Every structure is written in C-alpha cells, then in structure tokens.
C-alpha cells in the first residue's frame, strides 16, 4: 500500500505506523450556549423532570399507606393496585433522576472536549493538583451554585428516592408479629369437630386418594378455603404439597406411621428457611426443592433437610381418607409452619 506524503503540517507521514494527528473536530455550540432563552428552557425541562421524580416518589409512599392490602377482602384487587402504584411511583422516581441528570449534562453542562494525554498511572504531585483543579472546574461547570432551583430539585429528588424502598421495609418491620398465628392453620377441625378435606389449589376440588398416582404432585389447600373471610392470610399458612410414593420407599417413624395413607404424604409448602413456597419436586430422587436458596427436603424421610440453609424439616400434615375415598386432614400440623424465627417471641 502506498502512503501519501502530505505537506499540511510538520507531522509528515514517513513510516507506515505513523499518522497525522487528526485533532479534535471543531466545537459546535448548542442552541442553549448562544441563546439565553433556550438555556433557560433547558433548565426548566430539567427542573420539571426532577419535579416528576419527586412527585412519583411521594405518590409511591402515599400509595403504600393509602391502598392497604386487605386480605380480608378475599380479593387480589387491592394487592395488585398497591403493587402497581408503588412500583410505578418508584420506577418513575428513579427514572426521573436518571433522565434529568442526562438532560442536564447534555444541555447545561460545559460540553468542551478535554484531552487527557497518556501518562504514568501514578500521578505526581502536580498531576494530582491538576486533577483536583479539574474536579473543581467540573463542579463549576455543572453550574449548580448559580442555579439554586436546580440545586433544590436535585437535592429533593435524591433525598426522596430511597424512601419508596425504606418506607415499606420499616412499615413491615413494625407489623403485627403475633407468632401464635403461625401455630394454627385452616387444617384444624371446625368447632363441630368436622375434619377438613384436601382440595386442589386453586380450583378447590376435593381430592380422592385413588387419583393421586405414584410420582404425582398436587398443590393443595383446605376445601372451601376461598370462602374464608381471611382467605389470603389463611391460604398463605395452609398450602400443602401432596405426593404419593411407593409405600416401601417411606421411612416413617412409629409415631408418624399413621400420618400417611397408602404412600400418600402431605407436607407444608412453606419453606422452613425464610418462607418461600417449596414448589419443585424431583420425581427420581423424591426431593422437594425450594427455588429461593435451594433448600432440599427428602420426601421419603419425613421431609428432612438434605441440603441448603433450612434449619428443620417441612411440617407434615397427618392425613386420612373418609368413607368415600376423599383425602381429609386428621388435624392441624403438630408444629408451627414456616421459618423457625416465626416461632420466637419478641
Ligand atoms: S426460603 Fe427456602 S431455601 Fe431459603
């Protein structure tokens, strides 16, 4: 390849690996650099976006308190609305800060190119002094001191942005921690002594022992639980997994020998680590897996923990069949469901 020599400057190309420094393209001023009105408009736009961020963060916090999730209503309507308002407010609050900062940088900050020559990584005294001077110049370029309104807006947006995260957290920490609620579930027989049928979740259909084939897994809740005035709270505690094994695979203690029916066993679905729903069943190994932190429970061995951070086995629901072959709970769980820390008094 032929390299053309040029007489444009003293940087004449003499070796293939050398080239003329093209330099920086000429600086093109933005509209706002020359027109004070355009500059003011840009400032107002940045201000407006920060204001949207502030309002969105406030809306998120207000939504948390104004739209209480009411499990007694028996519907997910409020839960969805609350989640949407908190989520949209939180998202807009963060997005507003990002968009406003970008617009501010592009339209109001100094846009002159700066060239940093290569140098040793460890700077000498003079370089470090230059860096400090450049930083201070950057702060001056951000023109925050000259724009008190923007200063207030950015301060307000940054101060409010963490609150949508913190308020629900603090609110929930101060919630109702009556641990006795975890010691009783909707599987307890009614006042008249009627035992509770096992039903499919969410279709609320009673389950016959004959339809639970070996290797199958059923998600189960107490029959007619959707009619309970406190449906969601009760369901959160009472959900159960039903599995049928070859009875010879079951390692049952004498005490629990009567808790299963012909190889069918029922365990609480609430992980004993921190309460995620255990929903994965490995048919080959007979292991139940919690997707949150991989706690693994052995269904053949009273759902004891074989891996992961869970501290104790899944509580077992003693079951039986009625005269028509429907599965029914003998009584409530013998121990509190869920993480062990729920059992602690505060
Ligand atoms: S909640 Fe199940 S392993 Fe953590």
TrEMBL record:
Gene3D superfamilies the record matches: Rieske [2Fe-2S] iron-sulphur domain
Localization in the cell: Cell membrane
UniProt-annotated stretches for the region Disordered: 1-35
Major subcellular site: membrane
Pfam families in the cross-refs: QcrA_N, Rieske
Record carries keyword Cell membrane: yes
Membrane topology (UniProt): Multi-pass membrane protein
Keyword 4Fe-4S: no
Transmembrane intervals: 45-67, 79-104
Biased composition (Basic and acidic residues): 1-17
Top-rank lineage group of the source organism: Bacteria
Residue ranges of domain Rieske in the record: 237-328
Alphabetical keyword list: 2Fe-2S, Cell membrane, Disulfide bond, Electron transport, Iron, Iron-sulfur, Membrane, Metal-binding, Oxidoreductase, Respiratory chain, Transmembrane, Transmembrane helix, Transport
Similarity comment text for this entry: Belongs to the Rieske iron-sulfur protein family.
Role noted for this protein: Iron-sulfur subunit of the cytochrome bc1 complex, an essential component of the respiratory electron transport chain required for ATP synthesis. The bc1 complex catalyzes the oxidation of menaquinol and the reduction of cytochrome c in the respiratory chain. The bc1 complex operates through a Q-cycle mechanism that couples electron transfer to generation of the proton gradient that drives ATP synthesis.
Name of the featured protein: Cytochrome bc1 complex Rieske iron-sulfur subunit
Organism for this UniProt entry: Occultella glacieicola
